[in-house]
Amino acid sequence: MSSLRRFLPFGLALLLLAAPGAAQTPPETAAARQLGKEGVEAYRANDFATALDRLTRAHSIVGLTTTGLWRARTLVHLGRLVEASEQYLEVTRMTLPEDADALHRDAIGLAEEERLALLPRIPAITLTGALPDEAEVILDGRPVPRALLGAARPIDPGQHEVVVRRGDEEMARPLLLVEGQQLSVELTSPEPQTATVQPTVAPPARPAPSPLPAARAADEGTNTQQVLGWVAIGLGGAGLVVGAVTGGLGLKTKATLDEGCRDGRCPSALHDEVDAYGTYRGISIGGLVAGGVLAGLGIALLLTAPDEGDAAVSLRVGPASAGLVGCF
Questions:
Q1: Which of 17, 75, 82, 327 could form a disulfide linkage to 312, CB 3.0–4.6 angstroms apart?
Q2: For residue range 260-317, what is the model confidence (pLDDT) as tens digits?
Q3: What is the spatial order of strands in the sheet that 182-186 belongs to?
Q4: Better-scored residue on pLDDT, 114 or 231
């Protein structure tokens, strides 16, 4: 038997030449032979993911005891012990024709031996607990049939998660199993939350603001118009003052220019006075015009406001000052 074990890694390609009971075409058999060869080579190189891919496809085509045996061995290395056990079992149940090669028969015996050695390594989990009918048990993302609750079920070693779901509520429990472990887990069901309907209480109605009395509304309108009128008068007065002051400075500068300039020409020493005169003249005109407009607007606002008594407003402008005099 030991010589057969040493032969199998190198003789798979030869075994695939004879497919007992197979009904494949020569091209299919040749393709399966190549896949099987690549699978064994990947297995020997510890590339078990590639080995599983190639051996699974080869086994689906020819279904030999040898391809099944090597596929089961690959699953063991990948930690998929439960699936490996089922693959070993499939090989042991294969029926061979009487003229089948002895190596195919020996592969069945090897599958039986390796399966018996594997079974004690496979963990088992038992899910127990009194659960309501509407509760659902989910293990690693797949629903668990009710018939399997309370029964030991083989499971691969490693990390797992069991979830009990009831309506919109669920309880999750992580599990870690090692080879050969027998674990019993008692499940509890989450309690569904009952929606409590709170009575809707309308907020108290806020009383509508009472309309202002007509007299109070009129007073507020009057006060606003009077404030605007006084603001305009103040700004206008300031403009008139600026215009008057700069006008006086301009007159003084012009007197200096009249004395120093002849025939419309001024010496260079008076050029600064010429520029200053132009500036004073522009500011004076602008200040007087703007001040007069604003003052007039303010007076109009005051005069057109609702009467609260006799009112009189007068504008006084002096050589170096301007102001308003009012009686209310």
A1: 327
A2: 776 667 777 666 776 776 786 788 788 778 878 877 876 777 677 665 544 455 555 5
A3: 152-154, 124-128, 182-186
A4: 114
Question: Six-digit token pair at 225?
Answer: 């118009």
Alpha-carbon distance 59 to 38, whole Å?
Answer: 13
Tell me if residue 136 falls in helix, strand or coil.
strand
Place of tokens 């004395």: 259
Looking at this protein, which amino acid is placed at residue 27? P
**What are the C-alpha distances in Å from 167 to residues 42, 170, 172?**
47, 8, 14
What secondary structure does DSSP assign to 275-298, as a single string? HHHHHHHHHHHHHHHHHHHHHHHH
At residue 246, the pLDDT reads 73
Block residue for tokens 């063991």: 76
Q: Which amino acid is at 123?
A: P
- Cα 158 from Cα 82, distance rounded (Å): 12
Buried b (16+ CB within 10 A) or exposed e, 124-160: bbebeeebeeebbbebeeeebeeeeeeeeeebbbeeb
Give the 3-state secondary structure of residue 14: helix
For residue 120 the two structure tokens come to 């004690």
At 311 the pLDDT is: 47
Show the tokens assigned to 255: 């007197």
